[in-house]
Amino acid sequence: MQTNYTIIPTSRSGHYLFYQKHLFYKVKPKNPVTGITTWRCRRYHNENVKCKAFLKANDEIVLSLTNEHEKHDEVGQFETVMLSAKQEIKEKISTVRVPVKMLF
Predict the structure, then answer these.
(1) Where's the FLYWCH-type domain (predicted)?
(2) What is the pLDDT along the chain (104 residues), one digit of tens a residue?
(3) If DSSP codes are grouped into helix, strand and coil, which group holds residue 5?
(4) Are 75 and 18 in contact (CB under 8 A)?
């Protein structure tokens, strides 16, 4: 099992976890005793898919991945880069009060 994952900011001040070409959203916050955070596939609420994949991870590695993903599209690396860039631009625009031309 591959243990590397990436945390990606979302537009609503949340985070996605990118692991094995899939995005997960946080279901349960980090347990203060065990240090484990529980994540669910972002396609869980999709009417056509209802993916039931769960992931448990600590600050460094993925500990477990339960259930296989339902048949839905994988997430490309470009989508994760775009999510990160979009959030970075939103933060930059909201913190600086100058014309947009001066930001870039």
Answers:
(1) 8-69
(2) 556 788 887 777 788 888 888 888 898 888 899 989 999 888 887 777 788 888 898 888 888 888 777 776 777 776 777 777 777 777 777 777 766 666 55
(3) coil
(4) yes
Spacing of C-alpha 37 from chain mean position: 13
CATH number where 63 lies = 2.20.25.240
Q: In this structure, is residue 1 part of a structural domain?
A: no
Q: Which two tokens stand for residue 92?
A: 């930059």
Q: Is residue 10 part of a domain?
A: yes
Structural domain count of the chain: 1
- By CB atoms closer than 10 A (0-12, 13-18, 19+), residue 12 is exposed
φ/ψ of 52, rounded to 5, equals -105, 20
In a domain, 89, yes or no: yes
Q: Is residue 82 domain-resident?
A: yes
Single pTM value for the model:
0.68
Domain containing 59: what range?
6-103
